[in-house]
């Protein structure tokens, strides 16, 4: 009798496991990562491109721009193995968003 109960419990657990797996497989796929902009840099920096580089909206306050610049620069700083080109683009994006741009472009 105990063996029969154990077999029945195992069968119910197996059935529950199969149903749970099927429900897991049938759920809609939700992307786990943000989609990134799949394009190169434009010849002259625009406000839209600057916002995309820093990961902020085009109409954002200066403090948010500075926070975003710091966050992105820490990840891409040349002293930490990042690219000089990307660092110059990040700095150019910050200047564009803060309105300090003189439209000379990056150093590269």
General description of the model:
GO terms for molecular function: ATPase activator activity. Probable component of the PAM complex at least composed of a mitochondrial HSP70 protein, TIMM44 and TIMM14. The complex interacts with the TIMM23 component of the TIM17:23 complex. Keywords: Membrane, Mitochondrion, Mitochondrion inner membrane. This is J domain-containing protein. It is found in: Mitochondrion inner membrane. The structure is a single chain. This protein has 108 residues and is an all-alpha fold. Helices cover 58% and strands 0% of the residues. It is built from four helices and no strands. Helix 2 packs across helix 4 (84-98) and helix 3 packs antiparallel against helix 4 (84-98). The longest helix has 25 residues, at 2-26. The chain is rod-shaped. The protein starts with a helix and ends in a 10-residue tail after the last helix.
